[in-house]
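Our preliminary data section would be incomplete without showing what the modeling component actually yields. Below, a chain of 169 amino acids is followed by its predicted structure, encoded as tokens that our downstream tools consume directly.
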Amino acid sequence: MDRRTALAVGATCAALVLAGVAGAATGAAAQTFRATGKIAFTFQLTPGSCKAPPNPANYKAHAGPARSGLCFTSNSSPPLKLKCPAPGSISGTVFSVDEMSGLRVSPAGVLHVKAWSYTSGPKPIGYSELYLKVSGTHASGYVRETDTIGMGGAPLLCDSGKVPFTAHA
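Predicted structure:
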């Protein structure tokens, strides 16, 4: 084997090793998870390029740049009960898991995101929150929904609280 062939073979082997490491880091194939518990929904984790979630503590934050990793997607919108202080009530609420689609799970296996709700004002009146921790074919976390309603001029905060779930692929 001449020097040029040896370099080409070495470069090819190095590329294959790096591709294998990248594939292992992002998961080799898409996985579908079924979440159960006090709320039930399905979601997929797929290797690809997707945005980092915005900082959940800052309602003005935007999603980060697209990079390779595990991308979260869901088409689910399961029902979710909100608790409101008297005399307020909200019915027919769903948790829009699908709003969280297209975001990247961190290398530590965590996705924590809030989708903020607005009316005509500049500040949010509530949010939909998803916290997900993935480890192999198992995941757990919670969802939470808040909303503000007006009753006789006084705003009332309605809140589902943290609704836990576990999921398996």
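The first strand starts at residue 31 and ends at 37. The beta strands are 31-37, 41-51, 66-73, 103-105, 110-117, 126-135, 138-151, 154-159, 163-168. Preliminary results of this kind motivate Aim 1 of the renewal.
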